[in-house]
Amino acid sequence: xxKVSRKxxxxxxxxxxxxxxxxxxVVSVADLxxxxxxxxxxxxxxxQGLKRAGLLIASKGAGGGYRLxxxxxxxxxxxxxxxxxxxxxxxxxxxxxxDCQRTDACSLRDPMSVLNAYLMRQFEQMTMELFVSPxxxxxxxxxTTTPAxxxxxxxxA
Amino acid sequence: xxKVSRKxxxxxxxxxxxxxxxxxxVVSVADLxxxxxxxxxxxxxxxQGLKRAGLLIASKGAGGGYRLxxxxxxxxxxxxxxxxxxxxxxxxxxxxxxDCQRTDACSLRDPMSVLNAYLMRQFEQMTMELFVSPxxxxxxxxxTTTPAxxxxxxxxA
DNA sequence: TCATATCGGACTCAACCGGTCCGTTACTAG
DNA sequence: CTAGTAACGGACCGGTTGAGTCCGATATGA
Lengths: 157, 157
What we know:
The structure is a homodimer.
Chain A: H1 6-19, H2 29-36, H3 40-52, E1 56-59, E2 65-68, H4 77-81, H5 109-124, H6 129-132, H7 134-140
Antiparallel strand pairs in A: 1-2
The first copy, chain A, binds a DNA duplex through helix 3.
């Protein structure tokens, strides 16, 4: 469980890499693939996905490549990963993709939705800034969060 | 991502089911499979796994079956799921199972370990009581937790 | 106009997972 | 003592999915 797909890992690496360059620097698939040691063809697909998701901006032709559409601090973890994960849910009951027959009477649905919602909330407030400078992020926390949200799983909202 | 294996789902259902019976009630694989609509052979494997993990106690022979080794409130979510998930980690870098070549220089390792540790902590403090009576659990919270642990991701410990 | 890059469909191969089958062992009710 | 019952566990199988490849099409800047 938990494990993200390889494509997602590559996506995270790519964005992390680009975030460390000059703000509007453009990098080609070939270069990025070489520097991060990722199969070029596969990385190509990944970056296309990220572009379609609105996270990257592509420019074709000689001297072209990709660049970030926004600063890392404004890119959420879930956005990066979602294009490559068809199912973002803990049990089959949730997510329309799967075929949970038990639909109505499913006894896991309820308790798991609690957990699910909780996880989602956490991932929502986690930006790619964490991947650029982990330490800074750790001590300052996500910028978009208000102190009032400091709740823990199972505690009353 | 996140999705647990089918075996894990069956494991959760099984324990939930047994927790709702009388404290030391014994139930056979056949019965449980019929009532929960789960393939019997597969459920057998699952329960064997749970027994090996020390969560269930088996008794062979006529009138035999399985019963909980401890009350649901003392069984943690991770314990139930672990026997059926070889990889409980977000990226390949963690967990000895996989083959992250980049071992040393892996740029995801650091930020992800932050997230990883956080998720683990949450799951540790989540017991199967949630599956027996979700509402009660929601309002009272886990019994084993001290208020001081109410931290959120990204906030200083 | 040519080299360069993105774009995106089609395809292969291997691993994994859900599920099944069947023989073995152990225990208990009668 | 015996027959039936139930856990035990290895072997197997087919479908799905995911990682990775190949290649032609399209756009664009030098």
